[in-house]
Structure prediction request, 295 residues.
Amino acid sequence: MLFSQIAAFDLSDWTDPERDRLEEQLAGKRFAPTLSQQVESLGWAPVVDEQLVMETDGAFGLLFRREERAVPPRVVKDHAARMLAEQEGEREPSRDELRQAQEAALLELLPQAFPRQAETRVIIDRRNRQLWFANAAEKRNSQISSLLRETLGEWRMMPAFGSEEHGSRLTRWLLEGPPAGFELGDSAKLLEPREGGSITVSRLGLPDENVLAHLRDGMTVEQLELIWRDRLRFTLRADGALTKVKALETLDEEFDDDGLDDPATRLEAEQRLTLDVLRGLTDSLRDALERPATA
Prediction:
């Protein structure tokens, strides 16, 4: 299973490119390392060897890469203060002078900053017009979707599980039992909507009577660990994103890696299995979350 986090989307106004054409488009936004005074660089990295696309079972696998040169704000502020002290002495700088000094300090410090990289796998399902990011962070997913539009042209993507919060449904699942195909895990996060407090429980057999008492007192579920068809364990957040995704033994047994010594062959097999899981899980969750609350 290639994804440890999942954000699922539906595609609209999507013009389906052929693989070779997609490879050309991605090459136009290929990742390049940051320059010495560049804060951030985004682009598409090779999935395997020099290929920017891996195609399996009617879907494209891509790899988003981000590199950042980060300088702690306190370091920038202190360096700017020293620069101003040398230039202006004891005179109190204006806001504009302070801002300009901090910008100059950042540019001076950036070449010394160690660049850090992070990658996110992306799968575009041509068959079902769906899209998955192996990331649950909204800011990062916004960067990926923006780069996709710059690369492939304008199209729309909508959250696969709707834009509403699902806390009330997660609460009902914990109180009354999860929908068919799912089992409760052993962790959850509860929120107090009036006072903003929260309680996190883990390694606790759910439903636990103490947890249920909190829910009856008005707390709601913000995160709930679930098990899907004995294949996958994950935490479902109220915003529809999945974190802490882990394959269970049943799923591991489905992945036969005997004879898969070639990295490209192994990755293709992993992507095929991941795609099968994402398709099935997305359909199951969509059905469960769209089911009327009175059902």
Notes: The first strand starts at residue 7 and ends at 12. Residues 106 and 145 are 28 Å apart (CA to CA). The chain has three domains: 7-69+114-159, 73-111, 167-290.
